[in-house]
Amino acid sequence: MPLLTRMLNAPLSIDVRRGAVAALGELLADRRIATEGRVAIAVGQGQGDHIAEHVRPSLAACEVFRVEGGTVDAAVDLAGRLRGGQYEAVVGIGGGRTIDATKYAATLSGLPMVSVATNLSHDGICSPVASLEHEKGKGSFGVVMPLAMVVDLDYVHAAPDRLVRAGIGDVVSNFSAVDDWLLAADECGERVDRMALTVARTAAEALLHQPGSIESDRFLTVLAEGLVLSGMAMSFAGDSRPASGGDHEILHAIDRLYPGTANHGELAGIGAAFCYHLRATRLDGHAGAGDTAAERLAEILTCLGRHGLPRFPADVGLTEDQFAEAVLYAPRTRPGRYTILEHLGLDKGETLKAVQEYVQAHGG
Length: 364
Hints:
Helix content: 40-55%
Structural class: alpha/beta
Strand order of the largest sheet: 1-8-5-4-2-3
Shape: globular
Radius of gyration: 20 Å
Low-confidence stretches: none
């Protein structure tokens, strides 16, 4: 009988605990990522510099580079400096923007990359996608997934609470992305990678009813692992489908129309909740519609509220009209992707009515 197997791209190491950064040099050597210690360390604003100094003794030949923001230009500049050295690997230390820029630079320079996250704001800490700003706005770029992932809970506890909580919204939005994928399969015959779908949905289910808060190491571990699993799901699928549906189309539209409104994870949570409102009230004849969608919507709103995350347009400073405009614009951010938004194809008046109903029905 032939043995049928599948090769799945995953990190060599995932280390989520207090004090994890202290073992970075050992991890690089033991995993044969950088046996001679010739490592470039990319840091951003915040805790990156402090962590770089913490790990420097275990990496005798390391060199530290500062990343000036999460832009394409910053990533390309870093890639040029990486190509100018004889490095075995690059370590990105910081939040989502620093890690995304480092992933892109590592991909351009052909170096393995290790991600050291200082906050848990979104699943970019361990995904094959980099979200970077450019002259026309913000775009998502395919990159090589980090070869290893480190989350030191000591540094996560020291990060701003808002950045840590935001990751909850990003993980929970996997529910909406997965249901959009299944809808696209029913309506358009799109192929669904059931392994990727299962991993993405399991990450969200593990977090949805998890007791505790971001003050708890146990909760932070589940959140960090959920973000890592979301990144792995995208790697398995070969694109962002398992973790990015109509919810992310809405957040990208808000980023373009009203830049600086809120961070990625916060907007992902609101987008997911609104998409479930649409499924509960306007989607007929599909699995996950009607009462099932209403139950999921209630669970998501409860989760977001429990952790102090925004749930309604006003929570992030948007009017109902502005949010409706973003929903209308949203499909343009991901041409070719089929979600609940493309399926319903609501016009301006219908969209505004849906937004108003969502706010009124759920206490916004």
